[in-house]
């Protein structure tokens, strides 16, 4: 399990059986999770998206820790908005009636792949050649549209 607390304005990529996100603001979470993501505390302007990266040994590592890449519940978040009015990090001004927000899904057109360089290509023994977590149709369609647009731009330059 992964627990993320008190983050602001970051993008976090997580492959785990489960994740708990608490008291975060303006973050994007790219998730490959087997259980529903849990959002607790005072969260604001959070977005979730499907897992967006891979490296050569990812599938082996997922298998070692029992993560099943065909099960990804990234978009089935469960929000528990229990806000501690005494938490100075959540409420720097001491506001006790603030409402926590649910995470929204990242627009498919905003999803990009995070590339991990393979610095030790000669030593790599992994079999992973692509993201093992399947993308939902809307995200796959958007990525294909972007690839086609880049290809057209490259053809125009020739």
Automatic annotation (TrEMBL):
One of its GO terms (cellular component) is spindle pole. PROSITE patterns: C_CAP_COFACTOR_C. Keywords: Cytoplasm, Cytoskeleton. It comes from the Eukaryota. It is found in: Cytoplasm, Cytoskeleton, Microtubule organizing center, Centrosome; Cytoplasm, Cytoskeleton, Spindle pole. SMART domains: CARP. This is TBCC domain-containing protein 1. It comes from Gossypium raimondii (Peruvian cotton). The lineage of its organism: Eukaryota, Viridiplantae, Streptophyta, Embryophyta, Tracheophyta.
């Amino acid at each position: 399990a992964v627990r993320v607390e008190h983050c602001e304005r970051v993008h976090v990529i997580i492959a785990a059986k489960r994740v708990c996100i608490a008291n975060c603001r303006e973050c994007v979470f790219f998730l490959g999770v087997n259980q529903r993501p849990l959002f607790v505390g005072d969260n604001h302007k959070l977005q979730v998206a499907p897992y967006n990266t891979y490296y050569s040994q990812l599938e082996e590592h997922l298998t070692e820790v029992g993560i099943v890449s065909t099960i990804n519940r990234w978009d089935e978040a469960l929000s528990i908005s229990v806000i501690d009015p005494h938490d100075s990090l959540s409420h720097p001004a001491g506001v006790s009636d603030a409402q926590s927000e649910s995470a929204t899904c990242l627009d498919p057109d905003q999803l990009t792949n995070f590339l991990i360089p393979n610095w030790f290509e000669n030593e790599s023994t992994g079999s992973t050649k692509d993201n093992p977590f399947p993308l939902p149709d809307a995200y796959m369609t958007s990525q294909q549209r972007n690839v086609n647009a880049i290809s057209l731009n490259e053809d125009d330059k020739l």
